[in-house]
UniProtKB/TrEMBL annotation:
EC number: 2.1.1.170
Gene: rsmG
Database matches in HAMAP family: 16SrRNA_methyltr_G
Residues annotated for S-adenosyl-L-methionine binding in this entry: G78, L83, V129, E130, R142
Location(s) in or outside the cell: Cytoplasm
Name recorded for this polypeptide: Ribosomal RNA small subunit methyltransferase G
Gene3D superfamilies, sorted: Vaccinia Virus protein VP39
Family statement drawn from the similarity comment of this UniProt entry: Belongs to the methyltransferase superfamily. RNA methyltransferase RsmG family.
InterPro entries for this protein: rRNA_ssu_MeTfrase_G, SAM-dependent_MTases_sf
Keywords associated with the record: Cytoplasm, Methyltransferase, rRNA processing, S-adenosyl-L-methionine, Transferase
Role description: Specifically methylates the N7 position of guanine in position 527 of 16S rRNA.
Entry's Gene Ontology molecular function annotations: rRNA (guanine-N7-)-methyltransferase activity
Length: 211
């Protein structure tokens, strides 16, 4: 797969999202996909094998929620191959991003991505989310667990006025009716990912006493 082909797909997706990124940022996003594809061949980090599909299913899927990210600190829970955390860190180097995952090989890949992509704003934590300390303005989670489990295990990470961005497919009505005490659904957005024919929904959760 040529780098130019990946760059073209990324640029077309950004245009469809109405987003503009500097040339060096776009190049770094392609660097990430190429690194992921190389590691994936040996370590099975993602079920997506084709680098072009990685641009759509990983880069553009992550970039689609970028307009909803707020604050100066972000924790990506169950980050896996660094999604969406690494992508969000690449496009916003001023934001401090913490990647959290229990899988050793995925944490090793995250560290290699941080090193090779020179991401000074990213910290990798290999641990269960329950064990992680600190609070963050924004918490992201992509296909990590049910909403109830996410918030039970990691709700302590959300700052008083923070926002939890849960990336889902179909609207999980049963999960929304079983949110843990202290949390509420603030709003939700239907998200369109260019080139992906699948339903995507972003649920924005907040503390019940947050303004």
């Amino acid at each position: 797969m040529s780098r130019a082909t990946l760059q073209t797909r990324l640029d077309q997706g950004l245009a469809a999202l109405g987003q503009t990124l500097a040339e060096d940022v776009r190049a770094r996003l392609v660097d990430y996909v190429e690194l992921l594809a190389r590691w994936n061949a040996a370590y099975n980090l993602t079920a997506v094998r084709d680098p072009q599909d990685m641009v759509t299913r990983h880069l553009l899927d992550s970039l689609a929620i970028a307009p909803f990210v707020t604050g100066t600190t972000l924790a990506d829970v169950g980050s896996g191959a660094g999604l969406p955390g690494l992508v969000l860190a690449i496009i916003a180097p001023e934001r401090a991003v913490t990647l959290i995952d229990t899988n050793g090989k995925k944490s090793r890949f995250q560290r290699e991505a941080v090193r090779s992509l020179r991401l000074d704003n990213v910290e990798v934590i290999h641990a269960r989310v329950e064990q992680v300390e600190g609070t963050f303005d924004c918490v992201t989670a992509r296909a990590f667990a049910s909403l109830g489990d996410m918030l039970t295990w990691g709700g302590h990470l959300l700052a008083a006025n923070g926002r939890w961005l849960a990336m889902k497919g179909r609207r999980p009505d049963d999960e929304l009716t079983a949110l843990p005490d202290g949390f509420r659904l603030e709003r939700e957005h239907e998200v369109t990912v260019p080139g992906l024919d699948a339903e995507r929904r972003l649920l924005v959760l907040a503390r019940s006493d947050a303004p």
